[in-house]
Amino acid sequence: MNAIQESAEKFLAEILQDFGFDLRISSAKTEEGYYFDLTGDDAEFLLSESGEVLDALEALLFQVHGKQIEKTERFICDAEGFRQTRKAELQAMARFAAQNVRKSGTSFTFGKLNSTERRIIHLTLREEADLATESIGDGMNRRLRVQLK
C-alpha cells in the first residue's frame, strides 16, 4: 500500500467512525486511481439517493488528497458493487445514445450527471470515429451531449 492510499484510507476510516457507521474498508490502487470498498452492516446507508453519500466521501477525499494524485486518477468509493453496476448502466446508456444519434442524425443530451458518470460515457464512446462527446453547461447543471462529427 502506498502512502497516498494509506493516508486516504485512514482519513476515510476516521470519517466513517465519527459518523458511527459500522463499516470496514478495503482499498486498492487501480488504473483509474484509488478504490475503496466499504462493507458492513451500514453499507445500505451509503447507497441511498443514488449513492450521494459515496459521492460526498469521494469529494472529501479529493479535497484532502487531490493534490497528491495524478490528474487522470480518481478516488472511488463503493459499497455492495454499486459503482460497478452504475458503470455498466452508463456504458449501456452510452451505446444506446450512440445508436440513436446514428439513426436519427440529431444529437442526444443526457440529464444531469456527475463528473465521474460523464467521464465513463466519454471513455465508452471515445473510439467511435463518427461520434463526438462534449460536456455542456456549468456546475451542477452540467450535461453530456453525443453528436455526429
Give the helices and strands, then pairings.
Blueprint lengths: L2 H16 L5 E6 L3 E7 L3 H23 L8 E5 L3 H23 L3 E2 L5 H11 L5 E6 L6 E6 L1
Parallel strand pairs: 2-3
Antiparallel strand pairs: 1-2, 4-6, 5-6
Helix pairs in contact: 1-2, 3-4
Structural features, described:
By secondary structure, the chain is an alpha+beta fold. 49% of the residues lie in helices and 21% in strands. Strands 1-2-3 form a 3-stranded mixed β-sheet, sandwiched between helices. A 3-stranded antiparallel β-sheet has the order 4-6-5. Helix 2 links the parallel strand 2 (33-39) and strand 3.
Key features?
3-stranded antiparallel beta sheet, elongated, 3-stranded mixed beta sheet, 49% helix, 6 strands, alpha+beta, 149 residues
Average of the residue pLDDT scores: 93
**Backbone shape:** elongated
Strand content: 15-25%
User: Which bin fits the share of residues in helices?
Assistant: 40-55%
Q: What's the order of the H and E elements?
A: HEEHEHEHEE
Oligomeric organization of the protein chains: single chain
Strand line-up of the largest beta sheet: 1-2-3
What are the low-pLDDT stretches, counting only 5+ consecutive residues below 50? none
Largest sheet descriptor: 3 strands, mixed
Structure in a nutshell:
With 149 residues, this protein is an alpha+beta fold.
